Write the structure tokens for this entry.
Amino acid sequence: RFKPHTEEYSTEAELVDELKPFKEGGLTFKKNSTNLVLAPGFIEFVKKTNNLKTVVISGVLFDICVKKFALTLRDLYDELNRNVVIIIPLSAVDTFDSPEHNREEIFEKTSKELENNGIQIVKKLGDRF
């Protein structure tokens, strides 16, 4: 179990500056776990957005929250027989570095695991398009 790190109204729960211009008109899902797919209303939202062709994921922690979300989302789209491309730009994700948690090794291992599950890993979003 992780100590609280993105509690509501904390600075860690705030949207990063680069994404703030897109907030108006967007949706917000509040999660109480390390997997956004389990947030109230998220699965219903996915089922309603059947015209979606591409999903770009950003966030932290790459090896925990981002990975769990991406893998579960991939499974959900597969279950719904939907051909949706999931992309993770490495410039839009991060994780911590410590003696027990080598950031570079984590990025390499997590990237390979995600790619092996059909998720596209790119250096930055412009590399894909």
Remarks:
- The beta strands are 54-56, 59-60, 85-89, 93-94, 120-122.
- The chain has a mean pLDDT of 88.
